[in-house]
Design a protein that fits this description.
Elements (H helix, E strand, L loop, with lengths): L1 E5 L7 E6 L5 H12 L3 H7 L7 E4 L9 E5 L6 H15 L6 E5 L9 H10 L23 E5 L5 H26 L7 H15 L2 E5 L1 H7 L2 H7 L8 E8 L10 E6 L1 E5 L19 H15 L5 E11 L11 E3 L5 E3 L7 H16 L3 E6 L3 H7 L4 E5 L2 H14 L3 E3 L17 E2 L8 H10 L8 E5 L5 E2 L8 E2 L4 H9 L2
Parallel strand pairs: 1-6, 2-4, 2-5, 5-6, 9-11, 9-14, 10-11, 13-17, 14-18, 15-16
Antiparallel strand pairs: 3-4, 7-8, 8-11, 12-13, 15-18, 19-20
Helix pairs in contact: 1-2, 3-4, 4-5, 5-9, 6-9, 8-10, 9-14, 10-13, 12-14
Length: 492
């Protein structure tokens, strides 16, 4: 699919008119009726521009293709626009004409073009890559199709720039969704490392991979301890760096990202129930967010110095597996008493956080992890948990979440919860003995390993990295965090 931004409407295309349910709706429908030869009164009676409301029209004028009216509701937010266009193009991509235009001039929606393009491009994703009985059919994305987006002359230059951001964001999100949705036997730690190396070569950022022997030499005891139960697929430690400092005329912000990369989580000896274990292939959603953020930052040439650290492992069960009551060493030198082997994500993040703090000293550290079911209990599937020791950073991320549509909600990081993680025999235990405040106590555990860094945020994305969508009948990857973090960095 080719995308073009233009001011001249091609009347022979199928045309999509996105409309808002506001006081100008009747006027906008009358204008559409005049342009297409349709009855304005009928349009006003039949179409109210409710969110996701769609009407397909067939003009009688010669040379006019099909017309689609798409409702955006009363006050559409960016994520509303993305979901509307993703759903429309996904459900119609087998029957759309191969030349489609989206007219943003009628309702003067040029400022939403990034989200329009992003949603349309996300519709290309197909989850069934391993199916063998695929039916061949004309597909708007597979064919040499043309998507034209029409804007006013005064908005053309800015619209072209924003449309490119929307398109490149979607391409990266699709790559990360494909990775998260891949089964565990297709993305074990070595495969994740290969993915990172290839991405670095494609998009221009540095990648270092440490195998299990090198991890041992570095002292990454926490990562190696979790990986002991998977002898065939040992851990990897991935370090990514994107840096435009050499081309900048002033110092760039140095930002550190750490992502949890558990490619499959059985729970270890503290084994999970079988009911939803198949979803545990998504337990590397934080790693996917870090990979995607650095990839997209490099594609957009964002003026930042970005470091990503991803500890990658399986959490499996064999005779060597980590056991409850074990005490393990970490990169920081601190010791951890293992209460529950299913609280493994925070263990490997301990090494990742300590490593990035000691070796890079970033101004800001943000970690992302599908960490706790407790966060889902607190916030459901509409927001990720945010815990931070810096109010300014927390407020920035919250505001960007509202803007980007990847919402987050702050939970307290008070020291009142600190004692719940005290161990009698080690520096800290990996799980509180009380079945409450799990998302908060997990963050208090991680806080120990940032070594006093004063500008840190932890995002618990357990309820957001894998969600329901039109892509399939079960939950699938969302690439949550990529849009949030890159939008935030664009505003720095």
């Amino acid at each position: 699919m080719k995308i073009s931004i233009s001011t001249q409407i091609n009347a022979s295309q199928g045309i999509v008119y996105p409309l808002i349910a506001n006081e100008k709706l009747a006027e906008n429908l009358s204008e559409i009726a005049n342009e297409t030869g349709l009855n304005a009164e009928t349009l006003q009676q039949d179409f109210k521009a409710g969110l996701k409301e769609i009407i397909t029209l067939y003009p009688t004028q010669k040379g006019k293709e099909k017309i689609y009216l798409i409702g955006l509701g009363k006050s559409p937010k960016p994520m509303d626009v993305i979901k509307v266009f993703r759903s429309f193009f996904y459900h119609n991509k087998k029957k759309l004409p191969l030349s489609i235009g989206i007219d943003l001039t009628i309702s003067q929606l040029e400022e939403l073009i990034e989200y329009v393009v992003n949603g349309a491009c996300l519709a290309e994703y197909e989850i069934g890559v391993f199916k063998t009985d695929k039916k061949e059919a004309t597909d708007f994305f597979a064919a040499d199709a043309q998507l034209s987006i029409y804007v006013l002359e005064k908005s053309l230059e800015k619209a072209q720039s924003l449309a490119k951001i929307g398109e490149e964001t979607a391409k990266t999100q699709i790559r990360i969704m494909t990775l998260v949705d891949a089964p565990a036997n297709k993305k074990y730690p070595e495969k994740m490392a290969e993915y990172a190396l290839k991405a670095g070569e494609m998009y221009g950022f540095d990648v270092k991979i440490f195998d299990e022997k090198e991890c041992e030499g570095l002292g990454l005891g926490a990562l190696l301890a979790v990986g002991k139960g998977s002898t065939e697929n040992p851990p990897r430690f991935i370090v990514l760096e994107y840096n435009l400092s050499a081309l900048a005329d002033k110092p760039l912000k140095k930002i550190g990202l750490v992502g949890k990369g558990v490619t499959f989580d059985t729970g270890g000896v503290s084994i999970k129930g079988s009911g939803s274990m198949s979803y545990m292939k998504s337990d590397m959603g934080g790693a996917g967010a870090v990979l995607g953020t650095i990839e997209l930052a490099a594609k957009l040439k964002l003026p930042v110095h970005l470091i990503g650290v991803i500890p990658v492992t399986e959490n499996c069960v064999d005779g060597n597996a980590l056991k409850p009551s074990d005490v393990i060493n970490t990169y920081s030198g601190k010791t951890i008493e293992v209460i529950d082997t299913d609280a493994e994500g925070r263990i490997i993040l301990a090494d990742g956080l300590s490593y990035i703090k000691k070796n890079y000293e970033p101004e800001i550290i943000i970690d992302l992890a599908t960490l706790t079911g407790n966060c889902i209990s607190a916030l459901g599937y509409n927001a990720a948990g945010l815990l931070s020791n810096n109010d300014e950073l927390a407020n920035q991320l919250f505001d960007i979440g509202q803007t980007s549509g990847e919402k987050i909600w702050r939970l307290p990081l008070w020291d009142d919860y600190k004692d719940m993680m005290k161990s009698d025999i080690a520096d800290v235990k990996n799980l509180s003995s009380l079945p409450i405040a799990g998302a908060i106590t997990a963050a208090k555990f991680l806080e120990i390993f940032i070594d006093g860094h004063s500008n840190w945020a932890h995002l618990d994305i357990a309820g957001m990295a894998f969600a329901d969508s039109e892509y399939g009948s079960m939950k699938s990857g969302t690439a949550f965090g990529v849009r949030l973090l890159t939008t935030w960095m664009r505003g720095l």
